Each structure stands twice: as structure tokens, then as C-alpha cells.
Amino acid sequence: MWIFRGVAFVMSKAESILLPGSVTAFAKANLGMGSALYPVPMLVMIGVTALGAFYLAKTVMGRHIYAIGGNPQASRYAGLNVERITISVFAISGLTAGIAAFMGSAYYGSACCGDATGYELYVIASAVVGGASLSGGKGSAISAMLGAILIILIRQSIRTLHFDQNYEWIIIGAATIIAVVLDKLNAKLTLKRAMK
User: Fold this and answer.
1) Which end of the chain is more exposed for a tag (fewer CB within 10 A), N or C?
2) Bridge-partner residues for 111, per DSSP?
3) Residue 125, number of CB atoms within 10 A of its CB
């Protein structure tokens, strides 16, 4: 990832690219009927989440993703092409990152290769706080979205209450660690119950 980011810096000479006003207008528009108007970025987020939830819960490929996340070796023995499915998951991840990058750049009216540096922690924290397991095989698109909303609320609360913004990383990191510990404890308790 850092290699590609470095290549982007070299190719763009670290200069921002201004986007046409029509793109920014689209990203800042509100859609709906009557008094029920919703921002386009929110509608895109809900649409992507709904597609992800459907894909994971209702398609064969979604079931395969959960199976590989839970136990790649058993999935391989069951005849699943683990490498191909893993690559497709990374491709889907790249697509959703591209959609987010487009919406963010469109909203602010410019794009720079250094945009969203450090957002990796927010993405991981959103998934983990939303209930995804770092060991795989567990989680959903809706819970990841709810985790992202919680992380945004934490960030906005820190800014609204005029706390030192350096605490933001500490609080989000601590929330992620707590979620991981609770996930591990839950997995151990589930295993103990199954052994009885």
C-alpha cells in the first residue's frame, strides 16, 4: 500500500487535483421527495451497505467468504478455491475504497495522493467495533456500518468537546482493543459451552 502511495506522490508531484464543480455539486446534493431530503453520500453509504449485506448473506459466494474466513484449510478440503475467493474479496474491498475516495474527493472538490492517510485505523476499528472478528468468519456489512457510525461519533465528540485531538487515536485504539478482547472472550466461552 505504501509503495503505491509513494508512486502516486511521484506521479502527481504531490499536487492536488481540482474536480469540476458539477462533481462537487453532485456530492453535496440532497435527494428525496418533499421535506424528506437525504445527502447523496449518506444514500451511497446505505446503498453500498445494503449490497454488501445482501451479497454476504444471500449469495453462495458470500457463504464461501465466511467459510474461508472461519477456516481456510477446511474450506480448501471442501473444494473451495481459497486463493481466487480471497483475491475477489480484496478486489471488492478496493472497489468500496474507490467509491469512498470518489465521494470524499467529490465532496471537498479536490483530490490529493495524501488524502485519507491514516484512515486504515478507522476502517479496522469500524469493522472490529461493529463485531467483525480479526480471526475471520464473523461480521456483517450492517454491523461494520454501525461500527463506522460509532467511530465517527467518537471523533466528532472529541472535537465538539474541544479535547486534544491526539486523544482521538488513544480512544479509538482502546475501543478496538476492547472489542478484540471481548471477541476472544466470547469465542472461548462459546467453545467451552460446545465442549459440555
Assistant:
1) C
2) 17
3) 23
